[in-house]
Amino acid sequence: MTTEYAPPASTFFPQPRLARGATARAPRVADPNASTIMATACHEIRTPVAALHATVEVLSDHATLSPADIGELVGRLQRSLTWLESMVENLTTSAMAETGDMPLLLRAVSAVECIEAAVMVIEPLVVRRGQRIDLIEPADDVVIHGDSGKITQVLINLLMNACSYSPDGSVIEISVGAREEDVEVRVTDSGPGVASGEHLHIFNRYSRGRAGAGRAAGLGLGLHIVKELIELQGGSVGVERAPEGGASFWFTLQRAPGGSQAAAGHDGVTSKGRAAA
């Protein structure tokens, strides 16, 4: 037998009194996705941490390892750290964007130098999958008016997205186009592309494209961070279907006064047809 209890109608629950002059706070509304987001974050962090533990355990017996084995294990450490650093950076940026506390250091920035810095970060992931990054760039290095750190973070997110959704052995293409007043940077992959109807929502927080479901894990923050950081600098973002399939994500930023400088040799990121990673 189940007994249900309800307080009698005369029961009185006094409300806490407010200090004179104080105003009542609006009730906090729970985020219905909070538990799912937290669970996903914990899962995502657990994976690279487990890989780090396993790799360090093997490296502790270094006396029996060949130089080639040690090199492979160090590369595994780099990939795990890259994944962790990217996730922490995105979570931090997302929190700062919510509070409006996002400092910017706007100055003349080399587009190619930002690309080089981003490629260096994700290179272990690209090499592991036998992929290649090609850069199509103008004869002169294009100079952007923006925050170099934020632009590099944008490129890391776009390149990690391309790496995750493209098949092994494929080519990821980066193109830089200078126009009269702005600069367009485009990252094109060989993945499944963005499904029709998702182009307007793919940059939303925690959004994941249906076409790539199951191909890559993640919180769905990367592309949202891209949009936040670019718009914060006065630019715009978008995505199109690539002519040969896949997705082509692009962003534009204001061109710096002067706009270009003589191109020098750029190690690490090369022109189309030669492997960058």
From TrEMBL:
<keyword id="KW-0808">Transferase</keyword>
<keyword id="KW-0418">Kinase</keyword>
<keyword id="KW-0597">Phosphoprotein</keyword>
<dbReference type="InterPro" id="IPR050736">
    <property type="entry name" value="Sensor_HK_Regulatory"/>
</dbReference>
<dbReference type="InterPro" id="IPR003661">
    <property type="entry name" value="HisK_dim/P_dom"/>
</dbReference>
<dbReference type="GO" id="GO:0000155">
    <property type="term" value="F:phosphorelay sensor kinase activity"/>
</dbReference>
<dbReference type="InterPro" id="IPR005467">
    <property type="entry name" value="His_kinase_dom"/>
</dbReference>
<protein>
    <recommendedName>
        <fullName>histidine kinase</fullName>
        <ecNumber>2.7.13.3</ecNumber>
    </recommendedName>
</protein>
<dbReference type="InterPro" id="IPR036097">
    <property type="entry name" value="HisK_dim/P_sf"/>
</dbReference>
<dbReference type="Pfam" id="PF02518">
    <property type="entry name" value="HATPase_c"/>
</dbReference>
<dbReference type="InterPro" id="IPR003594">
    <property type="entry name" value="HATPase_dom"/>
</dbReference>
<dbReference type="InterPro" id="IPR004358">
    <property type="entry name" value="Sig_transdc_His_kin-like_C"/>
</dbReference>
<dbReference type="InterPro" id="IPR036890">
    <property type="entry name" value="HATPase_C_sf"/>
</dbReference>
<feature type="domain" description="Histidine kinase">
    <location>
        <begin position="40"/>
        <end position="257"/>
    </location>
</feature>
<dbReference type="Pfam" id="PF00512">
    <property type="entry name" value="HisKA"/>
</dbReference>
<keyword id="KW-0902">Two-component regulatory system</keyword>
